Please model this.
Amino acid sequence: MAYKVCIITHFVGRLKFSMPQKLVVGNWKLNGSLAANEALLKACEALAGADIAVCVPFPYLAQAASLLNGMALGAQTVSEFKSGAYTGEVSAEMLAEMGCRYVIVGHSERRTLFGEDDDMVGRKAAAALRAGLVPIVCVGESLGERDSGRVMEVVGSQLGAVWESIGAQGLSRAVIAYEPVWAIGTGRTASAEEAQEVHASIRRWLAKYDVPAAEIRILYGGSVKADNAAALFAMPDVGGGLIGGASLAAGDFMAICRAAVAKRDC
Ligand code: PEP
Model:
C-alpha cells in the first residue's frame, strides 16, 4: 500500500514538475507613448515563478526592449512575408532582430477589423516559427457561435488551419490563447469553469492531431482583471493569460502576474 502511494505521489510530483509555469502576456493594442511606456515598464518586472511578456506596438519595440526588467518582448502581429514589395508590413525576422520572443497571431481584432482569415493566421504562425519566434495563436468564438453551441466547431477549424500550415511539430512550439470574442474588452469574462471546459476541449483536440497536448500552454484572454485572475489560473488547463486593458496599468498587470505565481502548480 505504502509502495503504491509512493508511486502515485512520485508520478503526480513528476507531472507537476514537468508543467511549465504560467505565462502572462500583456497586449497593449494601439496604446502608448514614449512617456507612458517608460512609466509603465519601470513599474513592471519579472517575477520568479511566472513567465511574463509584453506585446507592444512596433514603433516601441526598441524602447520596450531597453526597459524590460527581465520580462520578455513580443509583437501584436507579423507579416506572413519575409521581405519584398509589401509596403507597411513587418517581418518575423525583423521582430526577432528587435529582441522579440513572442508574436500574437490571429487576434480577433485582426480577424474582424483587418480581414485576416484562418489560412492567413496559419501562414503568419509559420512565418513566426521560421524566424525562431513563439507564435501566440488566438482562437475563440463569437457570442452567436457560443449561443448556437458551436464553440469547438469554430475553435477546431481555427486551429485546423494552423495545423495545416505548421503541423503538429509547429504547434508543439506555439502558445494557444483562447479568447472568446464576446469577452474581449467588454468587461464580461468567461467564468473559470467555462474557460476550463473549452481549454480541456482544446487539449483533447490537440492530442487528436498528434500535438503533445499536455505540454502546450493554453492562455485565457478576455477581460482578465486582478480580481478574477486567481480563479481562472486555478483551472488545471489554464496556462496563463493574455491581458489587454489591464496590462496598461502596472498595478493591475503585476497583480495578475502575482496571481499566476501563486497558482503555478495548478
Ligand atoms: C486582448 O486584447 O487580447 C484582450 C484579452 O483584451 P481585454 O483583456 O481588454 O479583454
Remarks:
- The longest strand covers residues 134-139.
